[in-house]
From TrEMBL:
Domain of life per record: Bacteria
Record flagged with keyword Oxidoreductase: yes
Organism of origin: Tsukamurella pseudospumae
Name by which UniProt lists this protein: Nitroreductase
Keyword hit for Transmembrane: no
C-alpha cells in the first residue's frame, strides 16, 4: 500500500465523525492524482464482504466526456427527484425546514457541476446472471457498501471529500452501456471525489441516541 500522499492528523474517531457528504466544498480546480484514489481504494478493499467473495468492482472516471455522460443522466434523475421533494416539503414542511432546504441547495449544486468534479467513482458488484435477488437484498449490498464507506473515510484522511449518491441508478443500464460495464455487474453507488476547500469538517447534528436505541427488543 502506497503511503506517499499527505494524511491529515486525525484519530479514527475523528475520521468517523467528521466524514461528511461534501458538495459545495469540493475543489473543482485542483487536480486529483489517480494514485491518491487507488491508495484510498487499497484501504477500502480491507472491508468485509459476504463469504469473503470480494465481488466488488470500482470504475474511476477522469475522462471529461465520460464524466459528462454520467453527469447528464444523474442530472435528469436528480431534478425529477428534487421536484417531487420540493412539492412534499411545501405540502408538509419538515420539522427542520432550514436544514432540509440547505441540503436541497447543496444537492442541486452538485447535480449542476457533477461533470466538473475531478473524479467520479462508481462502486459496483458482481451479480451472477445480472438479476438482482427478489426480496431483502441486504446480503448483496452488504458486500459492497461497507467498502464504499471505507473509501469515503480513507479519502477524508487524505484531505479529499466525496458524497454518497445513487440517483444515477435510474439510468443504470444506459450508464453501463456507455462505460462498457458487463450486465453481470450491478452498480450501487456513485461518489464524486475531489480535494476539499479546507479540511475543518465538524460533527453533524443528529437525533439523540436514546430516540433510536432499542435494547433486548423494540
Amino acid at each position: 500500500m502506497a503511503l506517499d500522499f499527505p494524511h491529515l492528523d486525525l484519530s479514527a474517531d475523528e475520521v468517523l465523525t467528521t466524514t461528511r457528504s461534501v458538495r459545495k466544498r469540493l475543489d473543482l480546480e485542483r487536480e486529483v492524482p489517480l494514485g491518491v484514489i487507488t491508495d484510498a481504494l487499497e484501504v477500502a478493499l480491507q472491508a468485509p464482504s459476504g463469504s469473503n467473495a470480494q465481488g466488488w468492482h470500482w470504475i474511476v472516471l477522469t475522462d471529461p466526456e465520460l464524466k459528462k455522460v454520467v453527469a447528464e443522466y444523474y442530472r435528469t434523475s436528480y431534478f425529477a427527484y428534487a421536484e417531487a421533494g420540493a412539492a412534499a416539503r411545501a405540502a408538509k414542511p419538515p420539522k427542520d425546514l432550514e436544514t432540509a432546504e440547505k441540503v436541497a441547495s447543496s444537492a442541486t449544486y452538485l447535480a449542476e457541476i457533477m461533470e466538473q468534479v475531478p473524479a467520479l467513482v462508481i462502486g459496483a458488484i458482481h451479480v451472477p446472471g445480472g438479476e438482482l435477488p427478489a426480496g431483502n437484498q441486504a446480503g448483496l449490498w452488504g458486500s459492497l457498501l461497507p467498502a464504499a464507506w471505507s473509501l469515503a473515510l480513507a479519502l477524508r484522511e487524505r484531505g479529499l471529500g466525496s458524497a454518497w449518491t445513487s440517483l444515477h441508478l435510474e439510468y443504470e443500464r444506459e450508464i453501463a452501456e456507455a462505460l462498457g460495464i458487463p450486465a453481470s455487474v450491478r452498480q450501487g453507488v456513485l461518489m464524486p471525489v475531489a480535494y476539499t476547500k479546507g479540511t475543518d469538517f465538524k460533527l453533524a447534528k443528529r437525533a439523540p441516541l436514546d430516540t433510536v436505541l432499542h435494547v433486548n427488543g423494540w
